[in-house]
Design goal:
Blueprint: E1 6-11, H1 15-26, E2 30-36, H2 40-49, E3 53-55, E4 67-70, H3 77-85, E5 90-94, H4 101-114, E6 118-121, H5 128-131, E7 142-148, H6 160-176, E8 180-188, E9 197-204, E10 209-215, E11 222-229, E12 232-237, E13 242-248, E14 256-261, H7 268-282, H8 290-312
Parallel strand pairs: 1-2, 1-4, 2-3, 4-5, 5-6, 7-10
Antiparallel strand pairs: 7-11, 8-9, 9-10, 11-12, 12-13, 13-14
Helix pairs in contact: 3-4, 4-8, 6-8
Amino acid sequence: MRKTRIKCAVIGVGYLGSLHAQKYAMLPEAELIGVVDADFKRAEEIAARHNTVAFRSYEELFGKVDAVSIATPTAYHHEAGMAFLKRGVDCLIEKPVATTTAEARSLVDEAAASKAVLQVGHIERFNAAVAALAGRLNDVSFIHARRLSPFPNRSTDVDVVLDLMIHDIDIVLSIVRSEVTSVDAAGVPLVSRMTDFASARVAFANGCKADIVASRVSNERERKLIVFQPGQYFTVDCATQRLSVSRAAQGGAPSVTEEDVSIEKRDALLEEIRAFLQSSATRQRPLVTGEDALAALSVAEAIAASIARNAAG
């Protein structure tokens, strides 16, 4: 176990990367060595904000850091991740872990070879409402997930499946823990040249099914999952960090009772980074592994392929 502060850096300090830098700067177990961005003025701005150093390239950090967050556009995750993993530097790579499963597999393999920690930023696993499902689920039969947003005021280098839906793919896979047997999906572009709305049905070997809907062209925002098991269902609101359980009422006319589960809300990104630092310090397996991210990306690829087939047919 490391006994000193973990020397960290953030690669890519756009909106999300700047938040990573903020969390590292506030945690006593971390020493924020510096930040990197293709826009050096942006790197200087974020560095000044957190009393650290702006670097023009991530290569300048080699030999200076123990751990990094990689929050670049997805197309650069593999290149940057491999560069640090090969040097034994622990990596927290934002989701999706890479653009293809082949890239993701090479990241996983390199982390195993170098014994570096590879954690992936599927942040909803650290959402208090999602975490509160632990120990409450058994024999889940159906999951319905909806993730809706207006079109983002940021550059979008991936379709809605990799941008938004992958959050819920990861949650569903973490709940069901069974082999995927079939995927059927439909989707349409609207604002971008890529799929902006998608709906998928995923079936599992244990009989569970999941309907997952994602839109980045909605007038409303919604981040909900409904998880059904015999006699009850759970409603998870990721946006408000609220969890409720609904059951069939006993006696009288058919009805459903709903009860809120007591939850202490938390800063999911702070918890994610704190957990990464803990894994880096103790060498323990992270909550969201590279293998988890590879599995989610594999399902995302199957959904995208199904969308393409159905559009062509």
